[in-house]
Write a structure and sequence with these properties.
Layout lengths: L1 H19 L3 E3 L6 H18 L1 H7 L1 H6 L4 H19 L4 E3 L2 H22 L7
Helix pairs in contact: 1-2, 1-6, 2-5, 5-6
Length: 126
């Protein structure tokens, strides 16, 4: 049940980022748009589950030197990778450039944290 709630939180956070950040776009087609968006959220969750911990360990010295601010760059890279996978699978999410991914990562982190606090899943994302 926690995985489904986490998937819905990721989807809502990505949905907010698509509407707030100008460089993030999603092709909302009339057919299967929400299913594709949930698949993008699932891909985002898988990328964060498997690759993000590895990158956090590898970049630990620079993360310590920047007092944790480099984690935002890691989140942006995860969003860029999700956009690239989404483009490859023709799911509809496009990320224009790194700065759009950086702003999108900030929005996804804030919205995800707020939704987790409201729902009570205990997940803090940064």
């Amino acid at each position: 049940m926690d995985r489904i709630v986490q998937l819905l939180i990721n989807a809502a956070a990505l949905f907010a980022a698509v509407f707030v950040v100008p460089g993030l776009d999603f092709a909302f087609e009339p057919e299967n748009a929400w299913l594709k968006f949930l698949l993008v959220a699932a891909i985002f969750g898988l990328v964060n589950t498997f690759l993000r911990p590895i990158l956090r360990i590898l970049t630990l010295p620079i993360t310590i030197m920047t007092l944790g601010l480099f984690l935002i760059v890691i989140n942006a890279l995860m969003l860029l990778l999700t956009g690239a996978i989404s483009d490859e699978l023709a799911l509809g999410l496009t990320v224009a450039d790194f700065f759009a991914a950086l702003l999108g990562a900030i929005v996804v982190s804030i919205v995800g944290m707020l939704l987790s606090m409201v729902i009570g899943t205990g997940r803090l994302v940064l």
